[in-house]
Design goal:
The protein is mostly helical and about 180 residues long. The chain has five helices and no strands. It folds into two domains: about 1-130, no CATH class; about 135-165. The longest helix is centred in the N-terminal third of the chain and has 49 residues, at about 30-75.
Length: about 180
């Protein structure tokens, strides 16, 4: 389902060129219906796939929480009375719930950001390369090199400013007091 969400996002971006050119530049009235229907279909697929993905992740997450809570509960039952005397019962419940929910949130975040977002990025880069190869070359190859070069220049400029501003003022006399000639 993540693949479908990412593909629908990429196809939507791919169709935007036709939407602008055929509807607004060429003023093709039939293209309004065709491209509008295609966009509606893409967004329906994207919404359905997103829903199924969310439900699937929720089921997996709930199963993880249930297994984690069962292991925690078994571990708590194996403890002796001194363990329970040291801590309040609400602390046990809080640890059980927050630990399991934290594990689920991390899993959801990792799966959606690595899976769906990475696939979306790949599809959008593919659309960029297909529609404007020269611009894609500039953005993907030349721009990072320029950014690294500018970053290096900024570092050097900071070092020069730091060296010149932190250097002590020199006096023309050996007394080490600032004289009028070196004063700003």
């Amino acid at each position: 389902m993540m693949f479908l969400v990412a593909a629908a996002t990429g196809l939507t971006a791919y169709l935007m060129k036709d939407v602008i050119n055929k509807i607004f530049v060429d003023r093709n009235h039939m293209a309004v219906w065709l491209l509008g229907g295609a966009l509606i279909g893409l967004y329906l697929v994207k919404g359905f796939a997103g829903y199924v993905q969310a439900v699937t992740l929720a089921k997996i997450g709930n199963r993880i929480i249930a297994d984690y809570q069962k292991r925690l509960f078994d571990n708590v039952l194996a403890q002796g009375i001194p363990f329970f005397a040291r801590q309040h019962s609400t602390e046990f419940l809080n640890r059980m719930n927050s630990g399991a929910a934290g594990a689920r949130m991390v899993l959801d975040l990792l799966i959606t950001s690595i899976g769906r977002d990475m696939l979306t990025l790949i599809f959008l880069i593919a659309v960029m390369v297909i529609q404007e190869p020269v611009m894609a070359f500039v953005c993907l190859v030349i721009l990072p090199v320029v950014v690294l070069a500018v970053r290096r220049l900024i570092r050097r400029a900071r070092q020069v400013v730091k060296r010149t501003s932190s250097a002590p003022a020199r006096c023309c006399r050996p007394c080490r007091k600032r004289c009028r000639a070196s004063a700003p």
